[in-house]
């Protein structure tokens, strides 16, 4: 039959999946989803999977027809690969929801060139991932394969999708670039955006260094057009370039709130903006120093400073000036051109835009740099706000050649699945193997088209291990999301991630006699990074959390003291190790809740372009767990912030924290509300709360607009399997 000739009107799995949303006797018919999984395999997967006489024939076919890289296979004895694959099959893995199976076979599996037949299954995709990331080490390949088939470890989408493929994009999740205030840098960055969007994930770019609209160029006043035309050029570049058609090109641009173009920057995202300046697909982020929150608190006027004149006075690009520290000096300095606005008026503009579009992201840049253990300055973030690493500006000549090669960032990401990680027979070994896998992605990455990214990666070997499935884990154990126990649990969990990634990064540095660049100037080298672990006890306190971690080694102060000595002696290989991505899509394959956030609905509705609506019931949903599955839209966002703040204490980079709010806020959810309609003040209060809780970044704001047209499973009072 073939996938191209599949008549979706004659298959039953879409109909069965949709029946989840039709209550039966006031209950959610979850059994329909399991029926949909079986039907999907019977009607779609099995008849459309190419068959081979043997595993050897299968692999030979994939190599001979340029589907997978022979070099990956040749690093191992074939007998080992055969045995490893068989061991994966012996696990009898079953997709736990229709959405998990559907997502995997539609987005991740290798298909024939015409897209008509499947050429691998879940176990084989894991096999190629394990073989690639272990780089010839049979023990590591076996460990990694086990971590993935047990769904304790999930590589990021670009890594999982591309591992072993002959024709592929990069394994890297995303990139960060900065533009300096000259035309060569603008031109080079647009070219870089095209190249990176073609081969990898999303690209974040900071525009803060660019001179504002109306500033002089070569002494001629009012010559500069500011940041808006550059935004339009970048948006067009991302729209044109994508990863071999497999991923939509995506980009985010950041601007400091003290940049004179900040109002125009925000206005470009508004629905009623002029088409000449409106950006439709580009994501916006604002870089917010501490001084801004002080000015809001005092209801004061704020000054916006010309990057052109700031750079002339300070001798460094605008991004590298500590605005909080220098604000008063800059206000008093007549050499610096400045513009006055009211801080709360800007705050209101940010809230209005978040209500309308969900943007901008917020990066609390001084919080980020206070917690940064690496020498240098962090100036921006990425497409999902979790990557925060030191960058050094490049200098270019008129041929757009580097006269001074700086450092930009590539992100190598993966996630633990909390529910399954807590069942690991050896928590530390699991995490250590994951860090090794991520380190391979960094080592194997060589983005020659963008030398500043390649240089930054070579110097830092940075990675980002995170987590997903918190709400699922809490519901299983009858713990309310946002309760003191949940906040304590996630703190201990991330303390363990921090400890074991430090241990393994230290092991790698010792093995290779190599550290990340400028390790000797870091807080790791002088030992100050470890101070809090030697003076404070981060072990579980409550009986419940102690019980959850029973059987898992909790490092004590002696362990931390020994680790400090090891790190000071032998160093660390990875400059950055931890980051929490939103991992929305891949969490479906893992049948768990996304990231650390609450679920959005008991039965989530997804709009698929070709096949209409698909439904995803909350993982492990049952009569036993339903009481612990409150929607994010009905949850006090301060509880979400508290959860993330607890984890953030142990994360050297950032976390993708999404805020969920209703257009009509439930009564009693927030004590300051006197009327139910969501206002700009609500969002401002939440952003400020996040800042004071030590949150480094806020990702998207999702507003749920009431729609009573469809009455479905989410209105049920109870559910059954």
Walk me through this protein's architecture.
Residues 329-356 form a coiled coil. With 721 residues, the chain is α/β, with parallel strands linked by helices. The chain has a domain at 174-409: Anaerobic Ribonucleotide-triphosphate Reductase Large Chain (Alpha-Beta Barrel). Helix content is 41%, strand content 12%. It contains 28 helices and 20 strands. The strands form 7 sheets. It has a 7-stranded mixed sheet with strand order 12-3-4-5-6-9-18. A 3-stranded mixed sheet has the order 2-13-14. Strand 3 (174-178), helix 10 (183-199) and strand 4 form a beta-alpha-beta unit. The chain is globular and about 80 Å long. The chain starts with 12 loop residues before the first helix and ends with a strand.
Shape designation: globular
Give the count of helical stretches.
Answer: 28
The biggest sheet, with number of strands, parallel, antiparallel or mixed sense and barrel status, is: 7 strands, mixed
Termini separation (Å)? 34 Å
Q: Based on the structure given, which CATH architecture of the domain at 174-409 is correct?
A: Alpha-Beta Barrel
In brief:
The protein has 721 residues and is an alpha/beta fold. Helix content is 41%, strand content 12%. The protein has a seven-stranded mixed β-sheet with strand order 12-3-4-5-6-9-18. A three-stranded mixed β-sheet has the order 2-13-14.
């Amino acid at each position: 039959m073939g996938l191209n000739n599949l008549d979706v009107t004659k298959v039953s799995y879409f109909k069965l999946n949709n029946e989840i949303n039709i209550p039966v006797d006031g209950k959610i018919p979850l059994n329909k989803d399991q029926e949909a999984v079986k039907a999907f395999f019977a009607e779609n997967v099995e008849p459309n999977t190419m068959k081979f006489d043997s595993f050897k024939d299968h692999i030979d076919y994939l190599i001979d027809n340029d589907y997978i890289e022979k070099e990956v296979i040749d690093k191992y004895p074939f007998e080992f690969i055969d045995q490893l694959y068989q061991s994966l099959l012996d696990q009898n893995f079953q997709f736990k929801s229709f959405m998990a199976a559907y997502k995997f076979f539609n987005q991740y599996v290798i298909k024939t060139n015409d897209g008509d037949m499947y050429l691998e299954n879940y176990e084989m995709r894991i096999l190629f991932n394990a073989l690639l990331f272990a780089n010839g080490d049979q023990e590591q390949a076996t460990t990694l394969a086990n971590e993935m088939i047990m769904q304790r470890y999930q590589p990021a989408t670009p890594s999982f999708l591309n591992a072993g493929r002959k024709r592929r994009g990069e394994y890297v999740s995303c990139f960060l670039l900065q533009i300096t205030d000259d035309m060569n840098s603008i031109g080079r960055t647009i070219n870089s955006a095209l190249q990176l969007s073609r081969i990898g994930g999303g690209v974040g770019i900071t525009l803060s260094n660019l001179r504002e609209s109306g500033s002089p160029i070569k002494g001629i006043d009012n010559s500069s057009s500011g940041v808006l035309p550059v935004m339009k050029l970048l948006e067009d570049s991302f729209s044109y370039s994508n990863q071999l058609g497999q991923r939509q090109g995506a980009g985010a641009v950041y601007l400091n709130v003290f940049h004179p173009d900040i109002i125009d920057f925000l206005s470009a995202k508004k629905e009623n903006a002029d088409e000449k300046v409106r950006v439709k697909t580009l994501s916006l982020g604002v870089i917010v120093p501490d001084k801004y929150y002080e000015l809001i608190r005092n209801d004061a006027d704020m000054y916006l400073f010309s990057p052109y004149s700031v750079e002339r006075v300070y001798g460094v690009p605008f991004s590298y000036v500590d605005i909080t520290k220098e604000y008063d000096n800059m206000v008093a300095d007549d050499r610096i051109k400045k513009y006055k606005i009211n801080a709360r008026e800007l705050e209101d503009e940010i809230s209005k835009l978040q209500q309308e579009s969900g943007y901008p992201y917020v990066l609390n840049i001084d919080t980020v740099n206070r917690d940064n253990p690496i020498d240098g300055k962090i100036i921006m973030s990425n497409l999902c706000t979790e990557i925060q690493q030191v960058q050094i500006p490049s200098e270019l000549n008129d041929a757009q050649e580097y006269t001074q090669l700086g450092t930009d960032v590539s992100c190598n990401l993966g996630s633990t699945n909390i529910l399954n990680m807590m069942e690991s027979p050896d928590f530390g070994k699991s995490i250590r193997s994951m860090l090794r896998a991520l380190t391979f992605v960094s080592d194997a990455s060589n983005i020659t088209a963008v030398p500043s990214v390649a240089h930054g990666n070579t110097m830092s070997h940075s990675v980002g291990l995170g987590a997903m499935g918190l709400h699922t884990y809490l519901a299983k154990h009858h713990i309310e999301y946002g309760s003191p126990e949940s906040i304590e649990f996630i703190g201990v969990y991330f303390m363990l991630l921090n400890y074991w990634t430090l241990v393994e990064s230290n092991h790698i540095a010792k093995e290779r006699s190599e550290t990340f660049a400028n390790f000797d100037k870091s807080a790791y080298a002088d030992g100050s990074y470890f101070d809090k672990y030697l003076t404070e006890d981060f072990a579980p306190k409550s009986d419940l959390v102690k019980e959850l971690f029973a059987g898992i080694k909790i490092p004590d102060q002696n362990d931390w003291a020994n680790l400090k000595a090891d790190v000071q002696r032998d160093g660390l290989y990875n400059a950055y190790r931890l980051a929490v991505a939103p991992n929305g899509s891949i969490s479906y394959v893992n049948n768990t809740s996304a990231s650390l956030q609450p679920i959005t609905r008991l039965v989530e509705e997804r709009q698929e372009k070709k096949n209409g609506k698909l439904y995803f019931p909350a993982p492990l949903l049952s009569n036993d767990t339903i009481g612990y599955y409150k929607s994010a839209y009905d949850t006090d966002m301060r509880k979400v912030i508290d959860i993330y703040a607890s984890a953030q204490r142990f994360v050297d980079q950032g976390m993708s924290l999404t805020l969920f709010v209703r257009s009509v806020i439930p009564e009693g959810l927030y004590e300051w509300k006197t009327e139910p309609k969501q206002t700009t003040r609500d969002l401002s209060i939440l952003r400020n709360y996040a800042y004071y809780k030590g949150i480094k970044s806020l990702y998207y704001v999702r507003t749920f607009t009431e729609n009573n047209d469809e009455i479905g499973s989410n209105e049920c009072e109870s559910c059954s399997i």
